[in-house]
Amino acid sequence: MPSKTIFRLVLASASPARRKLLRAAGIDPEVLVSGVDESQVKSDQPDELSVTLARLKALAVCERLRPAVGERPLVLGCDSVLAFDGEIFGKPADAADATRRWERMRGRSGVLYTGHCLIDLAMESRVEAVAATTVHFAEITDEEIAAYVATGEPLAVAGAFTIDGLGGPFLERIEGDHGTVVGLSLPLLRNLLGELDVDITELWTRPAPGGQTVEPLP
């Protein structure tokens, strides 16, 4: 009887938000940071830039992996950029840059692009796709901008905002997948896995979210 294939999802990202999103979906990934210098990659197309960066991250991590017998490592690279007012915003350069961005973005909207690259190391296959979600920013005050930037959170993320952290209250609404704004689209990941003939349920390592029990109504 053939032995069961051991799937291993390797996340080529240091983002705690992406890992948290996967864990909430029952997938506990191994994390290997790619070390790719994002500032060296240029493009005037946000979708192209996001998927190029995702590919470079995944390929860099693949070079450090050697699959064991019976193991099928799947390496996932992701990268997000915000297209706003004809410009592409990655991570802000500093606090002053984050402040300037928020002064422009408040009360307006942009499109967050997240590129995904999934590499099946054992089968030597690669699939890629980009998810896009429109983000509508609240009309926040100068004081709120200053307080938010002072936390340091906007400096570490594309577009200078989060949806799952301190920045959440400053987003009026989104049009599209919530995960895309976090940095990883679970529906898109499921589709990419399907292209590699992998069912996402084969990556489940525990019940989600957290295996909690539900109390029956009295």
TrEMBL record:
The active site is at D79 (proton acceptor). It catalyses: a ribonucleoside 5'-triphosphate + H2O = a ribonucleoside 5'-phosphate + diphosphate + H(+); a 2'-deoxyribonucleoside 5'-triphosphate + H2O = a 2'-deoxyribonucleoside 5'-phosphate + diphosphate + H(+). Transmembrane segments: none annotated. Keywords: Cytoplasm, Hydrolase, Nucleotide metabolism. Its cofactor is a divalent metal cation. It is found in: Cytoplasm. Its EC number is 3.6.1.9. Nucleoside triphosphate pyrophosphatase. May have a dual role in cell division arrest and in preventing the incorporation of modified nucleotides into cellular nucleic acids. Belongs to the Maf family. Pfam families: Maf. It comes from Micromonospora cathayae. It is an enzyme of class 3 (hydrolase). This is Nucleoside triphosphate pyrophosphatase.
